[in-house]
Write a structure and sequence with these properties.
The chain is of the alpha/beta class. It is globular and about 60 Å long. The N and C termini lie far apart (61 Å). The N terminus is likely disordered. Helix 3 crosses helix 12. The chain folds into two domains: 147 residues, Periplasmic binding protein-like II (D-Maltodextrin-Binding Protein, domain 2, 3-Layer(aba) Sandwich), CATH 3.40.190; 97 residues, D-Maltodextrin-Binding Protein, domain 2. It contains 13 helices and nine strands.
Length: 299
């Protein structure tokens, strides 16, 4: 082989190596979703924020069951609402499944609208928030009646998690109506226990609550009228994701947008999850009985 032919051969080999390297780089530039769940060997973890609220525990377990059935790895991160929004902003959390708008979580939307993806799609369109009392408290039917009957409630509104959007709105309500009441923070389970004890003893109690919630199927409670609409009217429940989630998991992102539930469906899911010894098993039971519906979400 003469020198010129040898040089050409070397150049051809180098060119082939460059092409192979380029092809390898291109094929490697796929999303976590393409290289993971679709092949059934996904080592990436989708982290979903969970708050200790009945409907939140229900839907987070439902989505864990659905996504793991599709080959994804899912973990929960137990957080307060404020910490959850911060984690979405920093990218330490992938998804929050429960954001109430336009009123309850408006403060979080205004703070994080540029750094967190708030989905325009909603999964529940008939939510309601307000102060509730047992129906046997006949003297009180409006927020405006509370000061007149302050002694019935010892001047206390029994609240839940500090930092929750509804707690912030309730503080605003106290100012709007000039209520001589104190909002006492605790947790949702503690608040529900107080409601249970009060109802069992037919004692007055006032607390901020929301629908959908399983408590309304257990006790006869009524929402107080809110003439100033501090709590707003009908609320819609959205989900939020970290920036970049849509690119990393386009299919899952679309599935969340397809998700839609009504009062009966979310009520039954909550009941199944709360009745089961393992919330995930309760969610799986609900999925089995509503396969046609969930197939519309994850199509």
């Amino acid at each position: 082989m003469n020198k010129r032919n040898k040089e050409l051969s070397i150049m051809l080999v180098l060119l082939m190596l460059a092409l192979l390297t380029a092809c390898g780089s291109t094929s490697g530039e796929t999303s976590n979703e393409q290289t993971g769940a679709e092949s059934g060997v996904n080592e990436e973890v989708i982290t979903i924020g969970q708050i200790n609220w009945a409907e939140n525990i229900a839907v987070t377990n439902m989505w864990k069951a659905l996504l793991e059935d599709k080959g994804y790895n899912v973990e929960f991160s137990i957080l307060s609402m404020g910490a959850m929004m911060q984690a979405l902003e920093t990218g330490d959390l992938d998804v929050s499944l429960e954001i109430w708008l336009p009123v309850q979580d408006a403060n979080y939307f205004e703070t994080y609208k540029d750094t967190v993806n708030f989905s325009e799609s909603t999964w529940f369109d008939n939510a309601k928030v307000g102060l509730v009392v047992p129906t046997y408290v006949e003297e009180v039917n409006s927020v405006e009646d509370l000061n007149e009957h302050k002694e019935l409630f010892d001047g206390e509104i029994v609240g839940f998690d500090p930092g929750a959007g509804t707690m912030d709105v309730t503080e605003q309500l106290i100012q709007d109506y000039d209520l001589d009441f104190e909002l006492t923070p605790s947790s949702e389970p503690a608040m529900l226990s107080e409601i249970q004890r009060s109802v069992e003893n037919e004692k007055p109690i006032v607390a901020p609550l929301w629908s959908p919630h399983s408590v309304f199927s257990k006790y006869d409670l009524k929402f107080l009228e809110d003439p100033q609409s501090t709590y707003g009217g009908i609320e819609k429940i959205h989900h939020g994701t970290r920036h970049g989630f849509e690119e990393d998991y386009p299919k899952v992102n679309d599935w969340f947008k397809n998700w839609k539930m009504d009062d009966q469906q979310i009520g039954q899911l909550i009941d199944y999850v709360e009745s089961a010894s393992d919330p995930l098993e309760g969610a799986k039971k609900w999925i089995d009985e509503n396969q046609a519906l969930v197939n519309e979400w994850v199509k």
